[in-house]
Write a structure and sequence with these properties.
The protein is α+β, with helices and mostly antiparallel strands and 97 residues long. The chain is built from 3 helices and 6 strands; from the N terminus they run E-H-E-E-E-E-H-H-E. The protein has a 4-stranded antiparallel sheet, with helices on one face. A two-stranded antiparallel ribbon has the order 2-3. A hairpin with a 5-residue loop joins strand 2 and strand 3. The chain is globular and about 40 Å long. It starts with 6 loop residues before the first strand and ends in a 6-residue tail after the last strand.
Length: 97
Amino acid sequence: MIPKVDNFVIVGRTSDGRTFRPSDWADRLCGIMSAFGADHRMTYSPYVRPACNLRGDKTVLVDARIHDIEPLAYNFLKNFAKDNDLQVEVLPDDCFL
């Protein structure tokens, strides 16, 4: 059986509610997944983007389509959240369309 690959958001709060540090963690994590564009500027991946939720927490939005392109990157992001005890919320399948 093949496990379902979900869109998800990594929230900058640990499971016990503490704010994750450093404060620029989301930008750093998305920077790992960025690339140089045709204009010779670094751009974030369309599949991994920094954001902020309504509570003001830093977040990283992860589009499940990255799994089709680079499964190791998707697994890295899942493991980053797990290793740092960060909250992860599953997003609907159509949220990135």
